[in-house]
Amino acid sequence: MTGKMERREIGDRAWVFVACGGEKHFRSLEIALALLKKHSSLPVVLVTDRARNQVQPPPCVVMDTPAPREMTHRQAAIFLKTSLNRILPPGRTYCYLDTDVLAVRPGPDKIFELLGNRPILFAPDHCTLEMFSPRAVRCGCARAYEEREERFNRLMEKHMGPPLADPVLADRKNRLERLILEFKKNQIISTLELSRKRSRLDLLNQNIQKRKRSAPQGILPSLAGRVADWFKPSPRTLFEREGFYWDAKSHRCSDRDGNVLFDREFHDLDHFFRTNGGYTFDWQKRRWYDWEGNLLFDDLRWREFVRALEKAHGYARGPGTGQWLDPAGNPVFDCQCGHLAQALGEKFGVPEPEGSWVHPNGGVFVFSDRAGTFLDTWHAFSLAALQDPYFEDRDQGALAAAMGKHHLEKMEYLPRRYNFIADPMDTNLIHAGGLEFSTPGEPGRALRPILLHVYHGFEDPGWEVWREVAARIPRFHGSAASEPGPG
Q: The sheet that has 295-298: what strands, in order across it?
C-alpha cells in the first residue's frame, strides 16, 4: 500500500494524524495543528482519503491513501490508522496523535526520545478493559446501565429539583462533586492503628473546638474567660499529652513516630475547598456555594433524597465500595463487564488479561520501522472486528488483542503527561485550574499534561477545561476565554 505525498521532505521524525470525511474531524484537526505547531517545529503528516473529504485539510504534508469504498468514514480512519507502517515513508520515527489530542504545554517533541530501542510505545487508557468493554462490544450492558442511571436521575430530579440550567454553574457543581470525592478519599488512613490514632485526634480536636465555642461572650465574660484560660492547658499541650505533635509552620499533626495524621492541605474541609476552587460550605444550612455566592448543592435535601431512595425505592449502598445498587442489586453507575475480554479470546485466541488490566489507548503512540509486525496484527484484527456485528467500530479492542497476541500486556507505557485523558464525565478527575489536574489516588500531586486528550468535551464552552484550552489556541485565542476564578 502506498500513499501519494505532496511534499517528500519530512525529516527523521514527524507527527502523524489520520482524518477523513466530514467537517467535524477537520475542525478538530485544525485546532490540534495550531497548538502542536505552537510547541513543536517538527513536520506534520496527514494521512487521508481525499475522495471522502468534504473540506480541504489544513496546511501540512498530506498523504492521499484510498480506503475501501464500502467502509464508513469512521471505519476508513481505523483502516488508515492501523496501516501507517505500510503508508508512511520508511526509515523514520513517527508519533501518531488522534485529532482530539492537544499540545497544551512546551516539550511534546521529547516523546520521540522515550521510544528508545522499542519498536512501538503506547500511552495507557484512563480505565480498565472491563470498564471499556460495554462501549466496545454490543453485549447490551451499556444500554442496561444507561436505563438504570436514567431511573436513578429521574428519582433524584423528583426529590431535589431539576439540574442547574446554567452550563457554567453546572460545570462548577460537577467540579465540586469531584472535589468532594477527592476530599473523602483523602481521609482514608492506610493502617488500622493509624486510623485509630486519627479518630482519637479528631475527638480531641472536637473537644477543643467545643471549648472555644462555649467561651463566654461580651467584654467582662470574655475577660473572665481569658483569666480562666490561664489555668487551663493550651491546645498544644493537650495534643502533646496524647502523643500528637502540631507543626504550626506546615499545619500538620503527627504521632510520636512521625506519621502524619492531619495535613491542612488535604484534611481541613474549609481550607481544602477554599484553596481548590473557592467553594464554601455553610455549616448551619448545610449548603455549598461557589466563590460568587451561587448555591450549587443542598446537602440537607440530598440526605432526604438518600433516605427516600433506601426506604421508599429499595436502593442500597454496596458493601465496601459505597456504590449505589438498584433494587435488584445491580450497580447504577459502575458500568463494566467481561464481555470484551471473552469476545477477544474467542475470536483471536488471546488469553484473558489477569486482574484489572489498564489497556493501551490508541490515541497516542510512537513507533519505528520495527513496529511493522505488531501493526500488521493490529490492522488484521481491526478489519476482522469491523466485519463482526458484535464489535463496535473501534480499534482499541483489536489493539488489546494484538497486545495479547504479542505478549505485551506488561509493556511499559508512556508517562501520563503525554496522553492525559480529560473527560468531563470522569468523577475522579480534579481540575485545579491552569490545566493542572489531580486524582484521588494521587492527592496533592499536580499533573501538568503536555499532550491533553480531550474526551467528551471538545469545544464545550460550559466545561472549564475546554475554556482554558481555547484560551491557548493561537488562531482562536479569546473566542472562548477561560472563566475567571476566585481571587
A: 280-282, 287-289, 295-298
